[in-house]
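Thread: quick sanity check before group meeting

JM: Hey all, I'm pulling together slides for Thursday and realized we never actually wrote out the predicted structure for the chain we discussed last week. Dropping the sequence here so it's in one place. If anyone has concerns about the input, flag it before I start.
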Amino acid sequence: MTAKIFIDGEHGTTGLQIRERLAARSDLDMLSLAHEDRRSLEGRTQLLREADIAILCLPDDAARQSVALAKDAGTRMIDASTAHRTHKDWVFGFAELEDGQAKKIANAKYVSNPGCYSTGSIALINPLIKSGLMGVDHAITINAVSGYSGGGKGLIARMEDTDNSEAISSAFFNYALNLKHKHVPEIISRCGLMRRPIFTPGVGRFAQGMLVRVPLFLDDMKAGISRADVHNALMSHYDGQNIVQVVDLEQSDKISRIDPQEMVGTNDMKLYVFGDANGREINLVASLDNLGKGASGAAVQNLDLMLN
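JM (edit): ok, ran it. Output follows.
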């Protein structure tokens, strides 16, 4: 018996990618609305209630509406919006977050897909909190650059269409300069932080790919720790899975530059611990595809867990 899957919002950037990733699957019965009917409340309601699992690729308010429309139908949900990422009744869809998280996702009715920036940030910070190398009140700064596809169709048009009246010509720009970004609450919540991190996201003139960077002073962390200790904590945390790869220190030392597009087309993530072997400062870097492990790829991973 094939599972019935409905992507509510399949015509957006994330939804289209998920649809493409599932197109060849013979174990799924894909329910769909025509493009011209995508805003039909009646049509959406019918398919939301008919589906075994619905994947929501919608703005926050529309995602909440979809949950309400199918609340008593037994439909399981994966929400790619920000709406439920810190909600106590929703399981956070980062399977590598901690031991047992994949099982929680597999058994969940409601799963919140993480944001792209927060996936990289949590992947770097959470293991250091869990291992005791970093306190929950540590002063953290996060800097990141993403491909412009993360901004959806509107930003894609502004970056690619030179005739667009709001076209962006710069090679790179920072945004969220008021230090408010929709991914910060889930970083705080899922890492158990007591102090708000300073997060500065940026966008480069490339479609896909992402680097998330967390610089750290070792002397501000647990007394006497080294770069190797931080690397070992990451290695230990991600042992036994095949999605998050912690790059060897020796390999990292040979890298003179890192390309934010290195993970494009994959659903995996690489973590680096850069710095001088004898120095007291390090740079933690997460490299991922913002539409892979950072969005659509993670949604498919969560779907597969929920389907066993």
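AS: nice. The chain has two domains: 3-114+295-306, 116-292. The two ends are 13 Å apart (CA to CA).
JM: adding both to the slides.
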